[in-house]
Design brief:
This protein is α+β, with helices and mostly antiparallel strands.
Length: 189
């Protein structure tokens, strides 16, 4: 009679082998948001970030310890949604504008971007025109929307089509180009 080895030790050995193949990212704590310094420039547009209004963003990609800083949440999403970046996100940070001034968000007000609520189509201007207002709590996003207009979205609801609509609306708000976006819809969201 042929005796086969028990499956349990073989499965355990295989699990240990596969665990050793990972890069350990799951066990590593998330890199924290970094302070915005006077010399920091936006990874997308190159503008100096420190004195610009509105919530900012910071991104860490997988297998990369460098932080990429953005002058606005809109520029951060424009970067994240590019085909070469959309599957490389480790984590990102945005300001919670419920607890920090819009005109100069504080370095201690960052929250995970993936857990934030965003208001789009509001009347507040950010670094490059419209920016997505970010909040830790949904009720703060709802209150901002009630005061400043717009629509509340989750992280996963933001896509390139929405960002394109926002950019077009900003362009139409330039002097001599129209009335702005408050009369039109927002990409079906």
């Amino acid at each position: 009679m042929i005796r086969t080895p028990p499956a349990r030790p073989l499965a355990f050995a295989l699990a240990l082998l596969l665990a050793g193949c990972g890069d350990g990212d799951a066990d590593r704590p998330l890199a924290p948001a970094q302070p915005i310094t006077d010399g920091d420039s936006c990874h997308v547009c190159g503008m100096l970030i420190a004195d610009l209004p509105g919530p900012k963003g910071q991104v860490y990609l997988t297998r990369d310890e460098a932080v990429r800083k953005f002058c606005s949440t809109t520029d951060m999403f424009a970067f994240l949604l590019q085909p070469e970046n959309e599957n490389r996100l480790s984590h990102a940070w945005v300001h919670d504008v419920a607890v920090t001034p819009w005109s100069r968000p504080a370095d201690d007000a960052y929250i995970l971007a993936s857990e934030a609520w965003y208001v789009v189509g509001h009347d507040q201007r950010g670094a490059m025109g419209h920016t997505l207002a970010s909040f830790r709590e949904r009720h703060h996003a709802d209150a901002f929307r009630d005061t400043h207009g717009g629509e509340v979205l989750a992280f996963g609801d933001i896509d390139l089509a929405l960002l394109t609509d926002l950019a077009r609306a900003d362009a139409s708000m330039q002097p001599g180009t129209g009335n702005g976006m408050h009369g039109g819809g927002m990409h079906g969201h």
